Amino acid sequence: MSRDKTPVTPAVRILRAHKINFSDHPYAYEEKGGTAVSARELGVDEHKVIKTLVMEDDGKNPLVILMHGDMQVSTKELARAMGVKQVSPCTPGTAQKHTGYLVGGTSPFGTRREMPVYLEKTIADLDRIYINGGKRGYLVGMAPAELIRVLQPTTVAVGIQ
């Protein structure tokens, strides 16, 4: 960690390079705890904690989908929106190969490989989001507009409760 206690991850480097105003939110990481744990630890609504999921289409082309922590991705609807036959989650090893991040610490910022990014459209309606900063047990808070400005995601309506 640097002197200001912000971990220096590839994600943080990207945020700083794009002059994104973000807040640091370290928390006690729990294996397989997911967004429920991070929301509880930070005292925020799980709907505002955004998970970064790495998936691939039927041609094995990787992509990132950003979803509310309290929702799931309809892979059928995502495939339809992308114009492909099928979309499925990557294995943890494949996701790490594409992103450079450990599962549980995956950020959409600073991935090893450039991939298309899809964003559940209702995320843009939130005042503030909390998303992984590139390390297990570390989220960053920001306005969704900042994420959209830097990542330029394709918005989709693929969330299910």
Describe the structure.
The chain has one domain (about 10-160): YbaK protein (Alpha-Beta Complex), CATH 3.90.960.10. It is built from 5 helices and 10 strands; from the N terminus they run H-E-H-E-E-E-H-E-H-E-E-E-H-E-E. A hairpin with a 2-residue loop joins strand 7 and strand 8 (about 140). The strands form 2 sheets. Strands 1, 2, 3, 5, 6, 7, 8 and 9 form an 8-stranded mixed sheet that branches. A two-stranded antiparallel ribbon has the order 4-10. With about 160 residues, the protein is of the alpha/beta class. Keywords: Lyase, Protein biosynthesis. Belongs to the prolyl-tRNA editing family. YbaK/EbsC subfamily. This is Cys-tRNA(Pro)/Cys-tRNA(Cys) deacylase.
Look at the structure and give the CATH class.
Alpha Beta
CATH fold name: YbaK protein
Overall outline: globular
Number of domains: 1
Query: What's the CATH H-level superfamily name?
Result: YbaK/aminoacyl-tRNA synthetase-associated domain
> How would you classify the helix and strand content by structural class?
alpha/beta
How much is the radius of gyration in Å?
15 Å
Low-confidence stretches: none
Number of helices: 5
Distance between the termini: 36 Å
Known CATH architecture: Alpha-Beta Complex
What is the average per-residue confidence, as pLDDT, rounded to a whole number?
95
The counted number of beta strands is 10
The helicity comes to 25-40%
Order of helices and strands: HEHEEEHEHEEEHEE
Strand percentage lies at 25-35%
Largest β sheet strand count, sense and barrel closure: 8 strands, mixed
